[in-house]
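Bug: token stream looks shifted between consecutive jobs. Job 1:
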Amino acid sequence: MSGEHVLICVAWPYANGPLHLGHVAGCYLPPDIQYRFERALGNHVLMVSGSDEHGTPITVTAETQGISPQDVVDEYHAINLQALTDLGCAWANSIDARGPAYGGALFNRTSHAEHKRMVQENFRKLFDAGFFERQTMEQYYETNEDGSGRFLPDRYVEGTCPTCGDDDARGDQCDSCGATYEAVELKNPVSKMNPDAKVEIRETEHLFYRLDLFQDALQEHAADRQSVWKTNVKAMTKQWLDMGLRPRAVTRDLDWGIDVPLKEDVWHGKCVYVWFEAVQGYLTCAKIWAQNNADRLDGGEHAWKRWWMVHEDGSVPRHLYFLGKDNIPFHTVIWPALILGLNQVAKGKTADESIVLPGPGELALEANVPAMDYLMLAGGQFSKSRKHAVWLPSFLERYDPDMLRYYLSINMPEQGDTDFNWPDFVSKVNNELNAAYGNFVHRVLTLGPRFPFDPGASPFARHDNHPSVQVHKDALEVALKDITNLLQRHRYKEALRRVMNVAQYGNQILQNAAPWVHMKQPQDGAEESLATLSFCWRIVRFLAIVTQPFLPTSAQRLWSSLGYDTEVMDVSWHDAVDWTAPLVWLDAAPSPLFERLDLEEILAVEHTLVEDEPQHAQVHGVKGGKKSGGKNMKQETEGVAYVDFETFMSVNLRVGKIVEAQDHPDADKLYVVKLDDGSGTLRTICAGLKEHYSRSAMEGMMVVFVENLKPRPLRGVVSEGMMLAADDGEGVVKLITVDGEIKPGSQVR
């Protein structure tokens, strides 16, 4: 049996609220596209993920709503799994339709008893091998009037930022200035859940994982991945490794989670830190999948090893991790360090012995981490806590899931942040998905039966395989190679654009052939014209197969409309250019693949939904995301953000001349720019433009900048404004400049 073993690992969402479109674009749609594509190539694919059900995001939600953490996770695990299924994600395919040996999928839960058992077992093994060290640390403690109290995790504490003085800083990070600090450095700390309680600092004992022991091995691994990883993955991993890895706490004072499996009294009431146990879900999930299907798998409950272990011949199963950019270090540093530690103990070795990269019979490290940037909502970051989001379950109640899959794929934040807004969504659905793709399909399937054809045969059969269409065959074969290459490189946006180009190509050759001219009486060139129409049926078949990873629901509808009674998901990828495939036909009027959308109607509905939405208690904790400070958002239409005229006029835009640009001393992507703003002194601005401009190219440019932006420290350098730049969403960024010479400091009106 040929084909690679591919493990697709999907970031585990916190089960403390519904998924929003930012989650989908960043974490959950890309792996489903990849899963479907890998299957079509004939590979053995196992996709694993699940709900992250422990940690403070869950307990904060539970305490805010006055219910138990278990109630929270039970509700949102069911809601989110159903929403992903409704989106067309393949989580229902526990066993691959091609057979158990080909893999399947499991969306599990970290509250699963077997996950807990395996995590505790791994914890104990690493502890016994000396990979933990014990440390005493200071932490905030909440004391009530009756003498009761508890230690407060970071998310439970708010106060004044020690760096900028903002009053809405959280325990270990200020979202106003971006500063991070030790929790005990926060000024005026207050218990978020119990503001009247006294907050003091107490000592507490914890265990720390010796990440420092893996520094050399991880640097070697990162060096080996430089040709594979994306720029953001390389940069963030380098930053962590350059700072030097330090031990990281694996226990915390919290009663909701997996109990620390040690008998000493000091560990009573403490649980395993969620970062340590949740990433292990990729491994435990594969094992649980094999347990669940042991009676159908060759190798029984040990079948997971085909997707996890380096093979005896040295070949390695291909591991792909899908996540947002804020979770990169957990998957290129922390999780690999845990895997290397587990490999070490499996060999009977301890923390004192040399640590090496995996060999035959050991757990494999990742092949790639195609992390995504952020999908923004009308210019602002999606956020659960601020309720600034378009929620996936409610979206799918009103719109075709493939419309969303198309928009998020063609707008995917692969090389930079992208934006969701309703006008753009409607435009892309109507003018691209419908006008180009849907219209072409409908034209072909309705034109064919208007010509004479033999009873029981396809109306396209008489003119199939004419020599004149060879040029079109060649064009589609090239297109398939391009699409395949792009998907193998995780360039989903470009791959889908190439697919849409095929639909446009079909429209073009159909229009040029004009077969309708020959409907009543054949004219000169009728044979070639009708042959082109017949080949357009093959283009439609091609599109059904290659859109399947992106748009599975409409691809299946189209496949059935062509006359097939099989699942397009199970068709081989390269069958798209099988020009000998029979011309099947369904003698029924085709229905349009997609409906047109009306922007005014959508905005009216969204306004109504916002006005009618009850003010539920807030939910917190997009994993790895930024905390909002708990402030309510204004009730505005999701996906459309407005500013009043006075707010706009408060932004002071001026022209400045770049005098020099130097590398930031502590940030790989930033320049420190000195700007002549006409004041007589140079203004300092930090700008993330290293990927787009050389220093010499910037010097002398007349740029537009925001003069009255509040100064803020960026990695130790105070930035006194912001230069404006345009971003096309495809990786091209250009500074906004003025036409000709003008005095620095001139106001932009």
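Job 2, same session, no restart:
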Amino acid sequence: MTPQEAIKRIEEFGLHHAIGDLPHSMRTVEAFEMAINALKQQEKSRWIPVTERLPEEHKWIGTECFGTTISDEVYVTIEAPSGDRIVKHLCFQNGAIPSHKQRELDAFYKGGKPIAWRPLPEPYKEDNDDSTGSDRQGQKSKGSVCV
């Protein structure tokens, strides 16, 4: 079972079985929400084989000019034919590493291919307990364009 399937099953179970006396239902729903959040967080931090799936791509400024889509930047494990591996900070364009980035990789890892990727972590956020009144919580990191 994949984490996505587990999240879906927990969500479905929680909706159908958290019925009954209200305090019990509220605790059950809260427990399910915590479990779902933990699984989602785990899913965000795992290495995903490129054979399983690639990062989601979206339109960017080059879509209109070149007809391409691009992913947000991610960490990518590159494996050389020798078996050596390196982690690079890249994006995918039309389901592959952009050609200019592939040329850079080939200069050091001739024939190196991506084998897995993972999303970048969220940027550091200071605790909301400071006395300055600044509140950076809740601000999402903006996707970056990799070209």
